[in-house]
Here is the input.
Amino acid sequence: MAVDLIPIPLPIPLPIQRRAPRRFLLGALARPGAIVALVANVANVAIMAIIAIVAIAPARPAGAEVLNRVVLRVNDQIATLYDYQRRRAETMRQIAQGIQDPAERRNALDQVSENVFRDMFQELLLSSRADQLAVEVTDQEVDDRVAKIRDSLGIKTDADFQTALRQNEMTLEGLRSQTRKNLRIGGVMQREVTSKIKVKDEDLRRYYRLHVEQFTVPEQVQLREVVVLEDSGLPAAERGRIAAAIREAVLSGKSLADAVAPYAGKGQASSVVEIGWVSPKDLDPKLEAAAWKLPKDGMTEPVAARGGDHLLQLVDRRPQHVKPFSDVQAAIQQQEQERIFRQDSIKYMADLETRSLVVADPPPEAANFRRGIGGGEDESLKGLAGAAADKTPSSGSGAPGDSGAGGAAGDVVGAHPTAIDTTTDHKQGLPAPTPAGAPPPPKDTVIIPPPSAMPVPPASTPPPSEKKQQPTAPPANPPPPEQEPNAPPPPANPPPPL
Here is the structure.
């Protein structure tokens, strides 16, 4: 069968233009008119190329966003929409992995957008200040901190460390970069807040006298036990007989270990378990009632409880007592330093913001990033600048807000507005940041905590030491009477700073 051949038109060859000799070209370019003409020709070619590219490029959907749009500026520091979306996605991933309760997870996810944007603002504010103060971090300091991160997560080998990084969608260089940034921020807080915290010995002793109940230890007993096991398959009557035989052997002078050995070898009873020191309400009520009335070296009757028939032996007893001041002095100092750190940090951030140029243009879901978590627009949620305006910083404890008329070296001074915010029609101070905090990791995954914008409070040192102190974790229960009225609640579960 004949096949019709379809002629394919070939491109029309363009005439070859010969290049002018070099000496002629250079000579031509030496004339001003020739240079102008050549530039005009090149410009025309470039314009035509741009028009061609635009013509063939697909049109951007109407709802598309520009990922490199600047959403936050603090002085010369900026954050783009891409930065925000990346951090938001990472925080959401960690919440999904770490929080098992659906309602708690939903609540945390609802707050992610505002928390992430608030953290970004605080990080840029402190990073800008680090630049102004020329805070530098050495490679050795970064190496040491990364090693501490590995140790705190229980990572022993390089292979396990790489696995953890992959699980967190991180690289070693990315972790080192973020660690360096966090160390610079920590250096700012150390220099301008922590180093100014002074706690007097008489203040510590006064707190001790006024809060004696916090340092009162209730009566305690030291116990050990054995259990005739319920899952041994023995009937209840036989378990009771074995428990009674063990007790009689102990009362006859045998050690508890020797008395239980024949039955433990058969799997009928447990070995001796050293419970240690316990306080009231630490034990099952039935076991506590039986053990608390024992004399030293006394043995309870068999007590039926979870797992089988229990026998408890009282090893020692300690009466109720108050811990001496020397035993709790360091703990009181750390608690007071942390309280002052939180209070002075709020004042410091407010003062820093008033001396900075802030331009905020958050995406819609983070438009209310000022809002405190779980509350309305009440007095406690006023911006940092508003808090500073309402309260004159005290000068008694080295308040960091007192920067003097001329400001510290490197300050950004001038007629900058407190904040320029495109989401409102008025200038308003930004609030004290509340870090979202990394959720607890699941057992089968190592979670490397995300960066935290706010450095943690200073560590405790024996008073009245004047040494500079390194950040540590805040206490679980700071003293309520001393809480700064405008202070946001501390994070429920803060990661190790990177």
Observations:
- The CA atoms of residues 229 and 488 lie 51 Å apart.
